[in-house]
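Notebook B, p. 112. Complex prediction, attempt 2.
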Amino acid sequence: MEPTRRSFPTASQAFLAKRIFTAVGAEGTLIEDAALVLEDNQILYVGPAREVELAAVPVHDLGDVTVLPGLVDAHAHLTLPADKRNYEQVHQDPDEMLALVCVMNLRKHLAAGVTTIRDNGGRNRVTFTVRDAIRRGYLAGPRLLLCGRPVTQRLGHFYFCGGTADGPVEIRATVRALVAEGADHIKIMASGGATLGNLPYYAAYTVEEMKAAVDAAHDLGRLTTGHCRATQSMRYALEAGFDAIEHAEFLEADLSRKANLGAHHNLQGGQSVYDGRLAQQLLDAGTFISTTLQCGGYDTVVDLRHKKDTAGLTGQEQGQLDALQFYFEQKVGNFSQLIKDGFVGKLAISSDAGPFDTQFGRMDLGLCLGVEGGMTTGQALVAATRVGAELCGIADEVGTLEPGKLADFFAVDGDPTRNIADIANVTGVWADGRLRSHGPGVGVEWP
Amino acid sequence: MEPTRRSFPTASQAFLAKRIFTAVGAEGTLIEDAALVLEDNQILYVGPAREVELAAVPVHDLGDVTVLPGLVDAHAHLTLPADKRNYEQVHQDPDEMLALVCVMNLRKHLAAGVTTIRDNGGRNRVTFTVRDAIRRGYLAGPRLLLCGRPVTQRLGHFYFCGGTADGPVEIRATVRALVAEGADHIKIMASGGATLGNLPYYAAYTVEEMKAAVDAAHDLGRLTTGHCRATQSMRYALEAGFDAIEHAEFLEADLSRKANLGAHHNLQGGQSVYDGRLAQQLLDAGTFISTTLQCGGYDTVVDLRHKKDTAGLTGQEQGQLDALQFYFEQKVGNFSQLIKDGFVGKLAISSDAGPFDTQFGRMDLGLCLGVEGGMTTGQALVAATRVGAELCGIADEVGTLEPGKLADFFAVDGDPTRNIADIANVTGVWADGRLRSHGPGVGVEWP
Amino acid sequence: MEPTRRSFPTASQAFLAKRIFTAVGAEGTLIEDAALVLEDNQILYVGPAREVELAAVPVHDLGDVTVLPGLVDAHAHLTLPADKRNYEQVHQDPDEMLALVCVMNLRKHLAAGVTTIRDNGGRNRVTFTVRDAIRRGYLAGPRLLLCGRPVTQRLGHFYFCGGTADGPVEIRATVRALVAEGADHIKIMASGGATLGNLPYYAAYTVEEMKAAVDAAHDLGRLTTGHCRATQSMRYALEAGFDAIEHAEFLEADLSRKANLGAHHNLQGGQSVYDGRLAQQLLDAGTFISTTLQCGGYDTVVDLRHKKDTAGLTGQEQGQLDALQFYFEQKVGNFSQLIKDGFVGKLAISSDAGPFDTQFGRMDLGLCLGVEGGMTTGQALVAATRVGAELCGIADEVGTLEPGKLADFFAVDGDPTRNIADIANVTGVWADGRLRSHGPGVGVEWP
Amino acid sequence: MEPTRRSFPTASQAFLAKRIFTAVGAEGTLIEDAALVLEDNQILYVGPAREVELAAVPVHDLGDVTVLPGLVDAHAHLTLPADKRNYEQVHQDPDEMLALVCVMNLRKHLAAGVTTIRDNGGRNRVTFTVRDAIRRGYLAGPRLLLCGRPVTQRLGHFYFCGGTADGPVEIRATVRALVAEGADHIKIMASGGATLGNLPYYAAYTVEEMKAAVDAAHDLGRLTTGHCRATQSMRYALEAGFDAIEHAEFLEADLSRKANLGAHHNLQGGQSVYDGRLAQQLLDAGTFISTTLQCGGYDTVVDLRHKKDTAGLTGQEQGQLDALQFYFEQKVGNFSQLIKDGFVGKLAISSDAGPFDTQFGRMDLGLCLGVEGGMTTGQALVAATRVGAELCGIADEVGTLEPGKLADFFAVDGDPTRNIADIANVTGVWADGRLRSHGPGVGVEWP
């Protein structure tokens, strides 16, 4: 005798798929022959198709695909075109050009299954304006969480965005203005970066200044995160109470080389040294780490490897590839250490898409690196969905496929829990229960 | 044998009225068949007409009216036209238009019996200029107490007025400049408000910053008051030693709704929760509360109720009315709690006239809401006269009808101690002993 | 048998008066026992009361008064307070103070029977803003015709208003901007004036420049008028095709005194020499002259004569009175010559109220001087009503009491056609058929 | 015996359609059972399918549709959102928002079959930046011809775009700068428009100034066109040698209404009076007219008519509809006169999309009005394709489907040569031989 099937009288539509990955649990959960039932933009049911009665509901059978929660990219820069121009060159363009860069990037990420983007810094009010334009219906885009301008020291990393502030008073004032303009979180440039003249091996603010930023943000109900390439900046961030840190490259200055330093030396003068004690302290404090594995050249690594396998490399290209591979070995090595030290569950896989060569629409690269670094495929998928949502403070709404959550999801050919690279084979993307894209290279649906 | 009547050889004029309400005592005092004797702009005598000898004095018999002390509105915004444009739209107008708005508002309030206005914030130097114009005799108006620009954080509530200051040093400097320009008191925007991008559920300043404002003001002999919608801002104001707080809405953030916050979210995300312990602490500290009962939409409530009774409401209008009524139930509920907790005597009934729909010339609405909230008519009348004057620090000069006080008074048909709504039936307004208006809709007398 | 009375079924109200002066005809027309019948803001009938049937119409019997068309003051400066500060001192005040000066002046002029004012120059956009405020209902005021900023040479007369332009291209651009801002006419400072450093004995522009201003104005359907104290500027204005000229003082430089000239010499160095040939050319060209008889000190003459008759004058005061009387003898002398040369009918009596001591609300002074200069009382009254309206290009709407005109009128005790000074005894002022004032010193009715 | 078919060895693809409209000839030409053969982005063949050999070519059979040359909209404003905000409100938005408006508009127009847009004026460099973004591949869009900022007098029509210039020298300098920034043509605001304070009934420039603009443009190989609502501005444009004029509303000022003019009077004060002699002179001079039939409220007419037929109209809405219908009767009446006077062939049907309510993607409205005004369907289709291209000076590349032209075309269900409204039933749009859109409401293909 057949068991009674659950029915959903308020359902507006349902989807059938060979596989649904829910991102619930440490490794996520894969349901075979599954159904996803929606009421408008909310999920009513996720589970085996056989347990649900769908006779009265419009049903879309997606076939032999895997459906996953929309990716949550906890770190991207919508205003940056990833066209290998450096920051200084890109910011010769006017604000309206940066807004048009956003249009391209929103589309690429959405087509690749990313339904939530946390932007970690753009110039002036551009990202706020872009969000307003989406709200007005001028264009479609993923859900956006914005910091506006990152808070940075005089001529510090991303100073060209206009968020310069030194000293607790100015920092606090800057945070307040950002929140009034619409910031959902506050991004603090806690160490140097690839901006001309920066020193990524040092903290860029004092603990007192970082505390001022955190307090000002929390006083207005806003989360904080820090650009922390230097170990020192990670320590200060811990002390100041940051909710998350980005990059976590464990860089230290090589003090023996001070005499050689000049203005534009950010690629020399330091090294990456993993600090297990600091990792433990961050874990104890509940601090999230947003890993941005693919940034810093992995798109180029992929291109060069492809060229090596096909046309072959010049000597200069081989040298570039070697240097990049060394960099990513270190980076993935740190990531592996963090996993061993119990950090899975607090590590979000994010892209840092936008700068230099880091393309939007390639979250698959970070996921592959995550698996290369020791995560299971399930852990990696959770890291790019649920953990990202937790880091962003919106896990009550997105990040998993569960009843009550918003209906943000996408479908891929194949099964990423078996082969993580299948995550790139997108065949459809839905946000708020509405079809938004048929995948890369195809038009995004209209607002 | 008739008792000897008192005579006043220096009297310049006298007024007879069926009733004079003096505002002396907790409930005020109503004298029947009364006389008010003046020497120029000062009161010599208030009491039964039969006890005073007026043969040699010009006498105006006002007849069957109630004479009251001129109303003291402890919270208004003279530069704002109450024409349902939002702050950002109004401040597209140039300063000279804001000055002309003041002309209209001064007239409306004066005609409604308000002889003292404490302005709680306008752009640039406009309110100072308007007071100069009155002093030069260009136009007539009530007695003005001014703060000029409110002190506010970057992009904080009323930032468009130009009084932005963050950090103790800048705040102190700003207070000093305001006093030098003519400020009688200092208004601090201690929480967010209805300004675009504001978060009214949070404190806008740290305690240290608020203390700096209070100390700087007190150092120059000026009182302070704070815009405090958030409970948190009321706590900080208490700690910082504010002389008064405005609104006291006891708002708290609803932290579960973080994800939906964006740029323009000040109407969502919080709730009002009365805090009796905080109320007791404020009472112990002697802090005044300026209640601004009618602001936030009560003019519209009155209009919609009238339309409901006559033409009927559309569904949308009924929805608006329901939402507004819910808001005012909460607001009046808090007011009732304050009364129960012993706050009568420290609660001033003020209008917050100017923003959005809150008309000048309608102090009667606040008085009616005060009685609805549990005050006796006498308490309400005292709250809009003597307590207002005490809050403003000018109770030695105005606020009651007593010998030695300035001759600011007005006459109404009927008896507001029996029917509070009679306060709107103004038949004459005198300031400094001089007839200034015959009531609403009639011209104000010339300077 | 009684003749049939005319009836007006659409009449909204009617006024009866002992005398109505219509300003129709060269000397105007006085109707005894007259009626004025309105339909809303328009005149339906003016004539003997006995010829009209008013049984069904609300009738206001104004009694033994003279009703006249509202005065049209073709030359005033609403932003100037007439408080004996010079231009440079007044313009230390901010724009919002100038707007408040306008409020006072509008009231004074309206209370004195002036229902139309042509403003001939104020700073920035102040007069435009004041008109907007009247349209929005913030305050009541006469009908306003505005030029905004006068067009003037670098540091020329009224340069502080912001309308500086030299050369035909800049002048044309300035005229276009003024019209776009709302200018009804264009005022050109064609000679120097009392502005510090000016030379009133010379033309301030070339004919080519003046032509550019006139052409630019006419190209946009706007009339022109010129400040012309110098004879030379009157000649240029004639050649350039000005629609009107102001002042017409026939000043010539005394070239023998050039060596003594310095920067601040505008009270010396010239003389007034009537030029009958030029007058004839202007008459042939149909150019209006706006006479501004009372400006330049006549208020002070009146005050000093009064003081002489009561308290007596000091030697210094007598000297001042002598100098002023000499000035006005010349001025009235020129006026008399113009009358003799046939200029009645093209001479508007205007006040130039605002600068230095020339009070608003004293059009009676100019009318008395006009009669002193040789006009009949009827001619003078027509010069301050119908001719003013013709000069302003609005004679189809105001300036006389005739069917079809707008209902702008006022009532005075006495009969100004017998005693011109009776024009000051105002008992009521109506604009657009609505009571606006009970006369000087009494409040203007609300918008 | 079957005739030899033509073959195209270099063909890259071919399209079959039931009907192809070529826009060649006065009425255009309709080919049944037709083929369109391309080599990359160029047309090799258009004609009967039976005459061409396609065995070796990829063939897309579009079925029972009509294929037409991509529409050429000779007048649009990409930066304006058509959301019923006025110009002043829209331009409160920053440049980056205007760029995002362009993204929406490009998409709407492209989806409706418009493959070439001539923008007639936007703020600052926004339109140039948008074209750069398309060239960089950030987004897809129609072929763009740009003027950048329109040349306008001080506070003239569209002054907020930043192209203000008065006098021949400044105008010539402005034209040079625009060409250097990338202008393809020069737009001159030759009369006032709907900008606040404008007078559309008058010419805004002198003939000398207009000549300067034309000469400067022609000197740099650029065409000119003028915003000409006033008859006077059309006469001046003729004299100055404009290549085209826009709107051609034949407006004249109504001089009898001078008195009521104030700052914001552009909706009153004039009337439309057709001038056949002027039309003949323009025809003789070879001047194109860009008719912008649908602008000024036709979208609203359509909406109100629909509401009238369904829900019914309120009195206010009926009044609005009546006023708009009167306006469009006049407009279409002028259009009919121009046709009768031989102007077919020089009249381009353009949209003026962007301002107020004139939506992008609705060229069908203008085409319907063109037929209503007396054009045949063929003439109307030619007016929106070939004549538009001739007006824009690019008829050697686009505007018809002929060998050698660029492969810009679109397909519609039905046959617009029988029913002009079928033009809206777009099923596919190709630019440069590449599929760009599947029609309205569906995503535009990626760059």
